[in-house]
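Progress narrative, work stream C.
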Amino acid sequence: MKKWIVALAVLLAFGTAAPAAALTGQSPQDTVKMVIQPQYSYAFPFSEGLAAVAVDDKIGFIDRNGNFVIRPAFDGRQASATENGLYMFREGRALFRDNGKYGYLDKRGKIVIEAKYDRAFPFQQGLAAVVKDGKLGYIDRNGNTVIPHVYHYDPLETENPSFQDGLAKVATKSGNTILYGFIDTTGKEAIPPREWLVEPFSDGLALVRDSSGGKLELYYIDTAGKKVLDLTGRYSRAYGFYSGMARVEKDGKIGYINKNGREIVAPSYTYALNFSEERALAKIDNAYVLIDRNGKESERLAYSYIEKFGNGLAMVESVTWDFSAGKLKQERKTGYIDPAGKEVIPPQFDKGQGFSEGLAAVQIDGLWGYIAKPGLEQPSDWAKAELAEAAALGLIPQGMDQGFRNAMTRAEFAGLAVHLLTVAWDKPVDDMLKERGAAVDPHAFRDTRDETVLAAHALGIISGRGNGIFDPEGAINRQEAALMLAQTANLLGVQPGGKTETFADADEIAPWAREAVTAVSAIFDPFKEVPVMTSTGNGRFSPKSAYEKQQALITVKRLYQAKRSGD
């Protein structure tokens, strides 16, 4: 009975959703929801559920309701462009600064690693790059040195030394010559140091510019160090891959290629940025355009500045001039556009930042607060019917009936998968574990003690990111979700029975996820005649894209229906 009450409530909520402007006649900018009022001298983006804010030159951390979780006590100087990740949580640790030295906090505000490093970087893949006495090394989340401080560090030359795709770019000196190579997370040399110019890995490839033979060689290597894409002679310059696309330059103009080396956009722009969330930004004359993965341009956008996309929106800046009282006055205002170039939030703020975890910091009259991404609370039209079915079946856990367009965290998805099992088997978690002889290991991960996450681990639904890290607050991407769903399907005894779907971006799916993606795209909800997971459009799976809560709930519902049909 309760399930149908919930379903009715969900249906009523979904059926009556309407923009505030449509109900009140207000202008679009009146629909912007200021969730945390402007009151801070500076504000940082949200990361892992918390955001750093400055009050009286001290930094503290607030939650999404604006409540202080960590009282202001840290150095309140704003982060500079060279201090990537300062006061941002990554893998349960936030980098902070004290008297010119760097250390790390946990989410309770406890200093877990003292400020003793000359330079430090955010945690990534369980390790953080830190500099001490001019040498670079790596520490774990407890501050233990895992890889000794033996590598060359130059604050002006060293690129991002964090681990990416399991490898970190490091430098050694041989006389006056600097050699670059890559190490793995154990410190083992994966690609030997050489006298070449090589960039850190991105999207599984690293760009090499090698002039040692007397002419410029331009190519990409994979994580085994093998040359996989040679651009020598084709372009004068190239850049790293992002979202499966890389910028290339010829005769002073920029275009884009895919991982097969196919030219998607011929070099024609004097200014262009990397792809971000399926869009790249370029300039024609004095106007911006957005480019999709097929090379199609948007209409020209008359903004003075456009930032990269985050959470589906990009920050834009508009400049107007006013001549009054004999003076010419310039006014800059910040707003946000969607991937089609449509103005979702008209420019109205003095300053702004990109959206992160559904919120964006904006400045009004010198003070910073936070706005919510429009439409996050209500589900998309395409999702309403299936979400109502999920509610009727009791598959929406308590607390997950809101924020449908928010990115799902890894911990939330683990909880959702466990909840599906309790509904499908009509048994509590403890009974499921006991029947399978599975025992919860409270020390399975160093960054979470969440009972549901640990139960999901004991049942074999999830694993970590390595080195005891689960990253509970990190946004789950589509290939990670596919793996968890496939593991859950295996527990339910649901086997693929439909036609396997072939995706246009199959080469972008990580090897560890390919079998799972194949499986979940071939398991069908017989009542809707749709697979558990399918393409995001244009035949793409988009493996590294964040997974929205509404998508997660619907895929779990489809898997449940597949289970019911087989019983």
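Work stream C, second folded protein:
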Amino acid sequence: MKSKLGIHLKDGQCIEGQLARTFGTSSADIEVLVAETRQTHTFSLEEVCYILFSALPAWAHSVDLASLEKVETITGETFRVLIFPNSKFERGFVGILQDKSAPFPTMFFSSSGVRCRTQERLIGEIIQEQTPVSDKIIKDALKTQESLRKKRMGEHLAAAADIPREVIETTIQKDYRAQLIPRKVRVGDILMEAGLVTREQIQMALDSQKAGRKVRVGELLISMGFVTEEQLLLALATKFELDFVDLEQHFPSEEALGALSEGLVTRLRVFPLEISGRKLRVATSNPTDSTIGDSLRFNTSYFVELVVATSEQIAAAIDRHYNFSKSSVDSLLEEMGDEGQSLPIEDELDSPMFIEPDSKVISLINKILIDAYKKGASDIHFEPGSGKRPISVRYRIDGECVVIHTIASTFKNAIISRIKIISGLDISEHRKPQSGKITIRYEQRKLEFRVEITPTVGGNEDAVLRLLAASKPLPIEEMGLMPYNLDRFKDVLNKPYGLILCVGPTGSGKTTTLHSALGYINRPNRKIWTVEDPVEITQSGLRQVQVNYKIGFTFAQALRSFLRADPDVIMIGEMRDAETAKIAIESSLTGHLVFSTLHTNSAPETVVRLIDMGMDAFNFADALLLIVAQRLARKLCDACKKPIKPGREIYDDLMEIFVREAGHVSEHLPLYENAEFMAGTGCEKCNGTGYKGRISLHELMMGTPAVKRAIKTGTGADELKILAQQEGMWTLKMDGIMKVLKGYTDMDQVLKVCL
């Protein structure tokens, strides 16, 4: 007769039946003839919590060899079982219930179904087995533990406030006898009322009392100098059936490091080691805290296997692999110097490639990523020189490329290979461009880098990483709009439906502007959908979607879905094709407020571009509310800029440029006496450049009746520009001149971004 069994799954289901196939030490699943259906089913041990067997194994009678343990499963059940050393299973272990007359006395626990297991032996006994600690020392430690746990509040207060215990007791008795206070009042309140202690001293005493109640025997033995932390942890590892590891002999895998964020390892003081299948191995120095495993299981999709390591080694490993900013890139480059000990490998073309065996290349890339983020860079350029020339690392900061680091040429192939590995690219491909993505966490922030690898002459490859740091929207008042433009922009945003476009080249701040606009109208009574690639800015109240071209989920598909999802406002990250543009225009004509972006140079050119894409001029004209063209110019450093008073001819030159652009002098322009010319002198915050940050220049073309009529009649861009200016539009250059006169930037920076 086959053995009866009961399988308890992690989801709470219980299945009874008979074993249909041999279940052995290397089994990854179990085949069962289910009693209820009389059908055979196979269950993976990954979905099993534990299995009850009706028969005892032959070796279960050697009780002398067994150890009594308490096993707690992830379903919250606890069992006291005998564990035998000869029951070696790859994916779990076998225990025997002490009541052998039970209908199912044998239990198999799957490794992934166990929350924790603990030997019934006291930790003092285990310590004595492993260290030369006498019975007397253990008894003394237990007495000290008991006294700390029973220590009264008055004793803690006496220590915290440096007051004799007799004074405290006398004060309390005196007040009680005089019936000045209720009998249930706290001791600390009595002494504070008497002026003997302060609120801070009471809190110190409470903390001391709380710590005393939680003190463990092992901690006392360490403080007394009888055992080391390593000896205690070795004993705890034995008690909790965990492996003790030396982290200096273990190098973590990249997959394991990516499974846990810096914030999580820092908070729990744990360190990931490796991933095998669905099992994540993690080191902890606090095996008595069962909530650590629960937190790790909750925050990852892995079954967590804990091992034990010292707190010092865990802290050092976290600093080494997570806290990239602890030491500078420059200091690491000094260590690396010119001595790249590389291993030559021949590829198909017989050209030498190098693989850097030193982990310093890994640390260098990590540090550069964090360093670029901290310096406010939008892009990182890795540019290997030809032959033995070094690698130049340039950051684009505030729109300007600056050489930041120079690295010895012997490391160039190792650096490019490392970037390919962490961005999921093919390291064996050197002839074609490749695109990838790197995601890291730093100070509780998610940093995403878009990676582009491009083959260059001399057998080299350049890598350009664009930083897409998740951020929050700016208030619309902080977008750099001049009061004249800000009022018109706000007025349009209050419209119930229509089309608002933000145009400009890549990196001109279009997405930031649209999200600020959405933030201005984001109210509980408005349903707002956005589709973007990627989602760079998040804000509560918006339903945000990211396109995925790999599965065919495009802007157009998302828009069709939005229109069936009861929207009030729709934001489209970019009009990349005629289909998306057509749906957007139709959506704005059917009662929705639609925002989008386009890559054009000016507001009037945008109209011509959309008509050329095949848009119906009448529909587009009816839908149009506003087109915002913008650029980003370098801003004078607020920390070091100082007022200057240039000659009158400088002011007159600016007026001449403005009038040539506008056709007239605006009443908004300040007089020479009131102009606020500024110049950056250079300081530490701006690295001596005089510029820090960027300011936006705007061109707002309103969808006025005259502009709409011109669009319907097919007016060209030049004529449309003149008409829009007559209707109140300031060009980008005009807006830039106004910001020069207000002291935000200088004319050199305006002319760099405006024709």
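Residues 476-753 form a domain with the Rossmann fold fold (CATH 3.40.50.300). No further action is required on this item.
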